[in-house]
């Protein structure tokens, strides 16, 4: 497969290095970076060939069990690219960065977010978990500090004291979440990727990302579920 793959150039290597240092990059930033890397290294550039450019990098990352994956921000529907390690399950990869009780706090936070109605957990609910940790209890102050770290490290996003999973976390942990939360985790009916913040059809139970809901119902006078055709009773964002 690698013999067949297009050659990695210095432009590809530079792109990979920058993405590695960021961990995740918004689509428009990735497109700018693609152009800049090609110009610096005098490599053929075509503005609509970013995905081909990335698949060349991916074919060379394969033996290293790494991959650049494309995902979507649940807030605004914008594309993002993240570098994902396929060799370890994501929670074990986090284990090299955090202590056992910090990891337990993250897992419990993730439970709250995924089991919630709207894909968010309040800081109050998360901080109440701190002294229930089995590994080693945490003071509220420590837990508050830890939440800041999870946000800085792009595992969580925070809005007005409410926490949800960061786009990077969703891209990296999609398989983990789908297999560990089989009863509740659902894929978006429109874009088929994992949906944490979503609306759910009251009749048949399918879910859709809010940006996908917006896009799908934009042209419809009466919103009907794409699956069962019943009236879509949620407010269109």
From TrEMBL:
UniProt key word DNA repair: yes
InterPro entries: Nse1, Nse1_RING_C4HC3-type, WH-like_DNA-bd_sf, Znf_RING, Znf_RING/FYVE/PHD
Domain of life (superkingdom): Eukaryota
CDD domains xrefs: RING-CH-C4HC3_NSE1 (cd16493)
Domain RING-type: 188-229
EC number: 2.3.2.27
Main location: nucleus
A Pfam family reported for this protein in Swiss-Prot or TrEMBL: SMC_Nse1
GO CC entries: chromosome, telomeric region; nucleus; Smc5-Smc6 complex
Example GO molecular function: zinc ion binding
Gene Ontology biological process terms from the UniProt entry: double-strand break repair via homologous recombination
Broadest EC class assigned to this enzyme: transferase
Nucleus as UniProt keyword: yes
Keywords, sorted A to Z: Chromosome, DNA damage, DNA recombination, DNA repair, Metal-binding, Nucleus, Telomere, Transferase, Ubl conjugation pathway, Zinc, Zinc-finger
Family: Belongs to the NSE1 family.
Subunit record text: Component of the Smc5-Smc6 complex.
Name of the protein in question: Non-structural maintenance of chromosomes element 1 homolog
Organism from which the protein derives: Oceanites oceanicus
């Amino acid at each position: 497969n690698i013999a067949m793959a297009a050659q990695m150039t210095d432009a590809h290597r530079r792109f990979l290095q920058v993405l590695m240092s960021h961990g995740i990059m918004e689509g428009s930033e990735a497109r700018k970076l693609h152009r800049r890397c090609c110009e610096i290294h005098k490599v053929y550039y075509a503005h609509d060939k970013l995905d081909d450019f990335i698949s060349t990098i991916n074919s060379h990352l394969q033996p290293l069990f790494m991959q650049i994956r494309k995902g979507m921000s649940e807030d605004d529907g914008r594309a993002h690219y993240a570098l994902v390690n396929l060799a370890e399950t994501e929670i074990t990869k986090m284990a090299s960065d955090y202590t056992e009780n910090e990891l337990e706090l993250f897992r419990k936070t993730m439970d709250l977010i995924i089991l919630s109605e709207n894909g968010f957990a309040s800081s109050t609910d998360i901080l109440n978990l701190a002294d229930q940790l089995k590994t080693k209890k945490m003071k509220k102050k420590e837990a508050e500090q830890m939440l800041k770290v999870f946000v800085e490290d792009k595992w969580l996003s925070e809005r007005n004291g409410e926490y949800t999973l960061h786009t990077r976390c969703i891209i990296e942990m999609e398989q983990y979440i789908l297999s560990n939360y089989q009863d509740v985790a659902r894929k978006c009916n429109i874009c088929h990727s994992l949906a944490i913040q979503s609306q759910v059809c009251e009749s048949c139970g399918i879910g859709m990302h809010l940006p996908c809901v917006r896009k799908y119902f934009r042209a419809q006078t009466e919103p009907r579920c794409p699956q069962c055709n019943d009236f879509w009773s949620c407010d269109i964002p």
